[in-house]
Amino acid sequence: MTTTHEIAPGIHRISTYVPDVGPRGFTFNQFLIEADEPLIYHTGMHALFGAVSEAVARIVPLSELRWIASGHFEADECGAMNDFLAVAPAAQVVHSTIGVLTSFGDAAARPPRALADGEELDLGGAGNAAGRRRVRHLDTPHVPHNWESRMLFETETGTLFCGDLGAQDGNPAALTSDSVVDAAMRTEELFRSSSLGPAVPATLRRLADLNPTTLAIMHGSSFHGDGAGLLRALADAYETTFPQTRAVAEPSHAA
Ligand SMILES: [Fe+2]
Ligand SMILES: [Fe+2]
Fold first, then answer.
1. Structural domain tally of the chain?
2. How far is the CA of 77 from the centre of ligand 1 (A)?
3. 172 C-alpha to center of ligand 2: Å?
4. pLDDT at 250
5. How many Å lie between the centroid of ligand 1 and the Cα of residue 243?
6. Residue 255 falls within a domain, yes or no?
């Protein structure tokens, strides 16, 4: 069952609920940014291509898709990238330099574009009703998992595409202004999917400094409101629940 919801102007959440994952089922959410150069963040698994591409095509002709992005190299993130490349002749996979070197350069059917930390892609669209869209690439190694992990921040709407960070199980509302911290920690304890090192809270706090107003979350509800407060609360919750994620003070080498 695939549904679509506009979580910010011109930013669409395409959600597929799969009931037999975990005790309460799990949603797989892909995000489409409408612009002159439309971008999809996560393709979903190869098996979901039919449902996801149909939902995308209701908003943007598949042949106009320009960028195929994902957080890291995993089937739910990019399993259908070559299916999208096949139907969108102008489309190109875009990822981090590390991601292109380690996986995407080999696995993508056409050469991907590699971005450096902080580099921006102007998606255009100034003449569209929703306005111009621009995404900033952020390296987030090992957060939530994988060396090549990265996120995107859409600067015009303040939307952070945070992938598996803040994931909640079940099939909650498409968009909420309530905190998702408790549900996200319950899901972390259930699946243990994050790399539980100090990079997690440190990265959450770095992302909070962007002051996002919408968090586009890959599994569960997206969030609208004080994104910085939510990310900092999530960082605190990781440190409390998993003490190994607390930063270790540098040892003193003083004689
Ligand atoms: Fe993942
Ligand atoms: Fe995921």
1. 1
2. 7
3. 16
4. 67
5. 22
6. no
pTM, entire model: 0.95
Structure tokens at 253: 């080498």
Which ligand sits nearest to residue 219's alpha carbon? 2
Judge whether 51 lies within some domain. Answer: yes
CA 255/CA 253 separation, integer angstroms: 6
pLDDT digits (tens, 9 = 90+) for 184-220: 999 999 999 999 999 999 999 999 999 999 999 999 9
Q: How far is the CA of 251 from the centre of ligand 1 (A)?
A: 33
Cβ count near 243 (within 10 Å)? 9
Banded model confidence at residue 254, pLDDT cuts 50, 70, 90: low
Residues 6+ away with beta carbon under 8 Å from 126: 132
Read off the tokens for 105.
């350069």
Q: Is the residue at 15 inside a domain?
A: yes
The CATH number of the domain holding residue 157 is 3.60.15.10
